Amino acid sequence: MRGLFADLPRTSLGALYWAFILYLFLPLAVMMAMSFKDANFVAFPISEWTFNWYVTVMQDKQFLDAVFYSIMIAAATTLAATVLGVWIAMLIVAEGVRGQLVIFALAVLPAVVPGMISAISLRIFVSTIDLPTGTAAIILGHTVHAVPFVVVMALTRLRSMPGTLVDAARDLGADSVVAFYRVTLPYLGPALFGGMIFCVLLSIDDFVRTFFLGGYRPTLPMLIYAKVQGGMSPEINAMATLVLVVTAAVGLYAEYLTRRARSR
Question: Domain 52-263 belongs to what architecture?
């Protein structure tokens, strides 16, 4: 009897875990199933299955343009956020710099500010500096949101870095710039790679800031949102399924490469 009661917490935790997994994946499974329905509406039962919606999506010029536009914005955002994030992380761990806690707090602040508030403030900012809404404004907004994640990942890696590595490089004649590129940057490699993948996924998925800062050319989330306004259809489910599969594959591959690099 005592053993039975001892197993109850573990059993309850296991049940809660699988209930959470079901809650998480069941809507995704329904969405993916509806993308194969041979009809113009989303509803059960699915009497016939088809791949035609995926063919339609892959031939949709508007969808392909939105995908390439989102990738371009994500690439620019990732480059800017990585450079700024590494610079801020190096500033935080540097010796003799005052107010490092304040610098860290300000750097990660965009990650905790509600998305709507952040989007409104960015819209006011770009209007103040006379920056037109569109690509540049979107990249600016996405970069502000992505920098904190690069800072945290780079800072975690830097704090585990033995100081003797840089000292050894300087003893061998390397100046600060050479030591950074030859020692610090390679050591940061796994963290930076993970942070860059995170920036890409954040940028592609960012709807609120894009909505406030975007121009006439839609990104992928904006395009899907516009199509949803006309009612759900298997075509929208096919778009969402493609985005889900690609982002999941990129995320899992990035995690694999990051763990492999750390183990080395």
Answer: Orthogonal Bundle (1.10)
